[in-house]
Design goal:
mainly alpha
Length: 95
């Protein structure tokens, strides 16, 4: 390190600026590599967490459709009757 201090004291301004530019370039490259690694890790973690939010059997669409149908029919015939109608239509064994 002492040798570098002696060399830098004899270096011209152009050489010092070239060294600074090179060091900044190396630093930026390393920071970009680190950011990419952090993004990959974060995406991997998010993907693993999203897996646990997915429904285990089939899709959530039938449940959403049944609630929407129950609510829509409930405006005209009442919520209790619409629950019986929707449940009866989605599950024929209950008729």
């Amino acid at each position: 390190m002492g040798q570098e201090a002696v060399d830098s004291s004899r270096a011209s301004v152009g050489e010092l600026l070239a060294d600074i530019s090179s060091d900044l370039s190396t630093l930026m490259r390393q920071e970009m590599d680190l950011a990419k690694a952090e993004i990959r890790q974060s995406a991997s973690r998010a993907g693993k967490q999203a897996y646990w939010l997915l429904p285990r059997r089939g899709s959530a669409l039938p449940g959403f459709v049944s609630v929407a149908a129950w609510w829509a029919l409930g405006d005209s015939i009442g919520r209790g009757w619409s629950g019986l109608v929707v449940h009866g239509n989605l599950n024929p064994h209950m008729l």
